[in-house]
Write a structure and sequence with these properties.
mainly alpha, 30s Ribosomal Protein S18, 0% strand
Length: 145
């Protein structure tokens, strides 16, 4: 049997092209915060995303103990009502239809609210008349005139 030589670059020794990255510094260290207070909402919001999720240790640069203190302070502030559990972010477009299969729900009039639908239709006809838009009945009259 022929023996193969195993490559030594995998797992052993130093990597020939190590990635250079700068270690993130925690905002707690730069501002010399000794105690993470749940009432300090401005500080805690720096550790939260735009959707109000707690940011990862890797993103914030905290060590394990700091991240634990920040997470507990955020959780307490949420219970006290100082911070939201979640924020709804407005999206520019609603490309996908809803998943419930009832896609025409907004377009269909409700059976109970037929009066509102009829009033809306009258207002639409008045708007069309004001704007000079011909109705189907109005097309025949404009052609004859």
């Amino acid at each position: 049997m022929a023996s193969r030589k195993k490559s030594t670059s995998r797992g052993r020794g130093k990597d020939p092209n190590p990635r250079k990255y700068k270690k993130k510094t925690s905002p707690l260290l730069t501002e010399s915060v000794e105690y993470v207070d749940y009432k300090d909402v401005d500080l805690l919001q720096r550790f939260m995303s735009d959707r109000a999720k707690i940011r990862n240790r890797r993103v914030t640069g905290n060590d394990v103990q700091q991240q634990r203190e920040v997470a507990n302070a955020i959780k307490i502030a949420r219970e006290m009502g100082l911070l939201p559990y979640a924020k709804r972010v407005a999206s520019a477009s609603r490309g996908r239809p809803s998943r419930d299969g009832d896609r025409d729900r907004d377009r269909r009039p409700d059976v109970e609210n037929t009066d509102e639908v009829l009033e809306g239709a009258d207002e639409g006809a008045e708007f069309a008349a004001d704007e000079g838009i011909a109705d189907t009945a109005g097309v025949d009259e404009s052609v004859e005139a």
